Amino acid sequence: MWVSAAFTTRASDGVTRPSPWRDVPDAKWFDWTWQQQNRLTRLHEVETALTLSTDERDAFASTSERFRVSITPYYASLMDPVDPQCPVRQQALPHPSELVVHDFELEDPLAEEAHMPVPGITHRYPDRVLFYVIHHCPVYCRHCTRKRKVSDPTTAAARAQVDEGIAYIARTPSVRDVLLSGGDPLSLSDERLDEILGRLLAIDHVELVRIGTRNPVTLPMRVTDALGDVLRRHRPVYVHTHFNHPAECTPEAARALAVLADAGCVLGNQMVLLRGVNDDAETVRTLNLWLLRHRCRPYYMFQCDMAQGITHFRTPVQTGLDILRALRGWSSGMAVPHFVIDLPGGGGKIELTPDRVLDRDGDWITFQNFQGRPIRFRDVSGRD
Ligand code: SF4
């Protein structure tokens, strides 16, 4: 598991912050609007905080026009200032491989645009919809599956489009579950979020609303007590976080999860398996045990999608199965996420599990337990 000296010695309680933010007062550092206003978006800004390799500098110049760079000072402070292998850094800094587009890659790998009855709504499964309410994120993840529109201000969901989405949900009685996504819905103001949640939950057939957000990871200051009050008014709101590595598990992130959980939110984490970032069992186990301690259940471990320019992040499917095999039995089942592939073309999610059946002999099945031992189990045939 990757461990950075910079991370382990990082003072995250406001004592010392890395240069260039050493002298920023706490009142600013912990203010999410200050963090938004001071995001690193240009090469020379990033280089005030990090020493880039030649590859990273070249990649910045050639890719940032296609998919913008945006890094909050907080998220940058989690990065190793010199090591390009740093798992936090890899998720936010461009890599030369982003320019390599393979013929099997897809601009819209999950066919989200093809299943849009109205702009801004993907309705693929019968009883639930994805509702894109904003295209802004505090940090743009280099592995994002929605690079085609996230970070592009020209595709942002206007107020009229959100109204149209709510109208579609209201006239579609099969929709009982709405997942707010984007972009990051917590980029909306508290007032706007309050209004959208209130209008959705006023629809008789809408039973629950979920929010997919990376703010607890990249901008935990956004999760204020005032936001907690908004979410408490509409509870239970399910919140899907997106932690990928233990280096993201800071006291600030823990506080954000506490505010959400205390507001009655039901928390689940959706990590993405990323090569060189979190593709080993010990990293996933450490992350998941931390999440559980902070009332956030590991929910999904996603196989990285076939989106354009992110193949360098993808791991073999077998890697995910090996990680599951290493987790099951050695940690509580609560720490073992569902390993899923979201199939291309809108095929939907499928879950994969390691095969534990060694042999079948009539009604007797031989399973392999978590220690690798063969153990016989007598099935019932219906004739017993
Ligand atoms: S926070 Fe989510 S939507 Fe935004 S860039 Fe990252 S993965 Fe994409």
Question: What is the element layout, followed by pairings?
Answer:
Layout: H1 5-8, H2 26-29, H3 32-37, H4 43-46, H5 54-63, H6 73-77, H7 87-92, E1 121-122, E2 128-132, H8 159-170, E3 177-181, H9 190-201, E4 208-212, H10 215-218, H11 225-233, E5 237-241, H12 251-262, E6 266-272, H13 281-293, E7 296-302, H14 317-327, E8 338-343, E9 348-352, E10 357-361, E11 364-368, E12 374-378
Parallel strand pairs: 2-3, 3-4, 4-5, 5-6, 6-7, 7-8
Antiparallel strand pairs: 1-2, 8-9, 10-11, 11-12
Iron/sulfur cluster (SF4) binds at residues 137, 140-141, 144, 146, 150, 182-184, 214.
Number of strands: 12
Cα separation of the termini: 50 Å
Number of helices: 14
Q: How much is the average pLDDT? A: 91
Number of domains: 3
Share in helix: 25-40%
Rg from Cα: 22 Å
Which sequence of strands runs across the widest sheet?
A: 1-2-3-4-5-6-7-8-9
Keywords:
384 residues; alpha/beta; TIM Barrel; three-stranded antiparallel β-sheet; 12 strands; binds iron/sulfur cluster
Report on this structure:
The chain has 384 residues and is α/β, with parallel strands linked by helices. Helix 9 packs parallel to helix 11. It has 14 helices and 12 strands. The longest helix has 13 residues. The protein folds into 3 domains: 95 residues, no CATH class; 232 residues, Aldolase class I (TIM Barrel, Alpha-Beta Barrel); 29 residues, no CATH class. The protein starts with a helix and ends in a 6-residue tail after the last strand. The strands form 2 sheets. It has a 9-stranded mixed beta sheet with strand order 1-2-3-4-5-6-7-8-9. Strands 10-11-12 form a 3-stranded antiparallel beta sheet, with no helix packed on it. Bound molecules: iron/sulfur cluster. Iron/sulfur cluster binds next to loops. Iron/sulfur cluster (SF4) binds next to loops.
